[in-house]
Amino acid sequence: MDSFSQPVSQAADAKPLSFPPDFRWGASTASYQIEGAVNADGRGPCVWDTFTAEGRIMDGSSAAVACDHYHRYPEDIALMKAAGFDSYRFSIAWPRILPTGTGAVETRGLDFYDRLVDSLLEAGITPMACLYHWDLPQPLEDAGGWQGREIVGPFADYARIVTARLADRVKTWMMLNEPNVVAIFGYGVGEHAPGHKLGEQGILRALHHQNLAQGAALRAIAAEHSGLTLGTVLNLQPAVPDSDRQEDVAATARWDAVWNRVTLDGLMRGQIPALLADRMADFVLPGDEEAIRYPIDLLGINYYSRMTMKHEEGRPFDVGWGEAQCRRWTGMAWPVQPEGLYDLLTEFRTDYGNPAVFIAENGCAYDDVVTPDGQIHDAERVLYYREHLESVAQALADGCNVKGYLCWSLLDNFEWAFGLSKRFGIVRVDYDTMERTPKDSYRFLAEVVRTGRL
Question: Which sequence ranges form a coiled-coil region, renumbered to this chain (predicted)?
Answer without folding.
Answer: none
